[in-house]
Amino acid sequence: MSTPISGFSKLSKSQKISWLAENYFNDAQAGIRVLQQYWNSDQKLQQLHDEFIENTISNYYLPLGVAPNFTINGKMYAIPMAIEESSVVAAASNAAKFWLDKGGFKAKVIQSVKNGQVHLNFYGDSKRLEAFFNEVKPILLADCESITTNMRKRGGGILDLELRNKTQELAGYYQLHATFETLDAMGANFINSCLEQFASSLLREAAKSTLITEEDRLEVVMSILSNYVPECIVRAEVSCPVNELAQAGMSGQEFATKFARAVQIAQTEVRRAVTHNKGIMNGIDAVVLATGNDFRAVEAGVHAYASKDGHYRSLTHAAVSDGVFRFWIEIPLAIGTVGGLTKLHPLVKLCFEMLGNPGAKELMQIMAVAGLALNFAALRSLTTTGIQKGHMKMHLMNILNQLEATPQEKEAAIEHFKANTVSHAAAVSFLESLRP
Ligand code: MEV
């Protein structure tokens, strides 16, 4: 066990690595070599990455793939996806192709309102707090004017500020609930700056007001945006006549009915819903990452939305009626196309270029479509061939790499497993059969 270290962040990168190697690596030199393998030879680019976070020791790569042939609202996209799971990009591409000649995907942003709260303690008469809030609300908003100038110029800003009495849920708990339009920005810094200004203005005004007394114990607990954004919603859908869904060995009606049943199960059963939604997030997270957005924020918000009625459910819906199959998703996505990493990270910048430099609303649509596409691909496999066939085919390369297969062995294995079931054991015995 190493002893605690102080002032670690002040050490140089190589000092940090030496300390790590000395204390935590089994083979110091081998460990250092691995870290260095991932350094970028372009010093400037490496420095950019070093400065994204504290204590950077190397870069952590994920593959960046692309799923072409997505038609969304009549426009063709090649969607960049950053993800490590072997079958996701292939599944996205398959789903895009499948819907290409069936009208493609339609998507629209239903609402784009973000929110945040100043969380307060107040133990006096709620009527007095309400009267005080109504009196100072214009002052609180005016105090934010310098923060909101640029956003207002572009058509966004603070939409509303209200006092919410939460004492039924927690004694003495109130909040200033603020709503915002942040346009193409995810808006986290903007929202948090406004909230912190509301908080300090509120306390300043309270100190001067006769409506608030010491005994009320008015206190700001914290001020922070919410990653739960049920008023920032995008919808994506596909539809086609049922007969166009005929699959190998299944009529269109049979496939549509079984597919819709799978969605119903995910609407009902939490154990299935979580996996179902995980598959949706395979698509969404990959685009969120490729575009430099905050996948933790998106994940947290999406899963909370999945349980908005108190029961965790599928984020997608399916219906079969009058000979038409419809499949859609409605999800909250608070993302940005300006600020953060968007203009800073060269690959992220290129991903935006690939997408035609969309604004936030268009990017919300692209992400929702990626989620719907992945869910379609997963349910299509699950209700027909089973998931492992396609999944293991894509995973084959990982197994072969693990077994240190040569390029010739890989080629032979790919050919062999076109007609045979992939498993780790089957790959081992196939390679053994090739090796002298
Ligand atoms: C695997 O990453 C995702 C799936 O499990 C999703 C699903 O079950 O719907 C295939």
Structure description:
The protein has 436 residues and is of the alpha+beta class. 48% of the residues lie in helices and 18% in strands. It is built from 15 helices and ten strands. α5 packs across α7 (188-208) and α9 (270-290) runs antiparallel to α10. The longest helix is centred in the C-terminal third of the chain and has 23 residues, at 360-382. The chain starts with 12 loop residues before the first helix and ends with a helix. The site of (R)-mevalonate (MEV) has 9 residues, from α9 and α12.
Features:
3-hydroxy-3-methylglutaryl-coenzyme A Reductase, Chain A, domain 2, 436 residues, 4 domains, 4-stranded antiparallel β-sheet, globular, Alpha-Beta Plaits, binds (R)-mevalonate, alpha+beta, 18% strand
Question: TL;DR of this structure?
Answer:
The chain is an alpha+beta fold and 436 residues long. It has four domains: 43 residues, no CATH class; 194 residues, 3-hydroxy-3-methylglutaryl-coenzyme A Reductase, Chain A, domain 2; 112 residues, 2-Layer Sandwich (Alpha-Beta Plaits), CATH 3.30.70.420; 45 residues, no CATH class.
- Rg, Cα atoms, Å: 26 Å
Structurally, how many domains make up the residues? Answer: 4
CATH-assigned fold name of the largest domain: 3-hydroxy-3-methylglutaryl-coenzyme A Reductase, Chain A, domain 2
Small molecules (ligands, ions, cofactors) in the structure: (R)-mevalonate
What is the share of helical residues? 40-55%
Largest sheet: 4 strands, antiparallel
CATH architecture of the largest domain: Alpha-Beta Complex
For the secondary structure, the number of strands is 10
Number of helices: 15
Give the overall form: globular
Question: CATH homologous superfamily of the largest domain, by name?
Answer: 3-hydroxy-3-methylglutaryl-coenzyme A Reductase, Chain A, domain 2
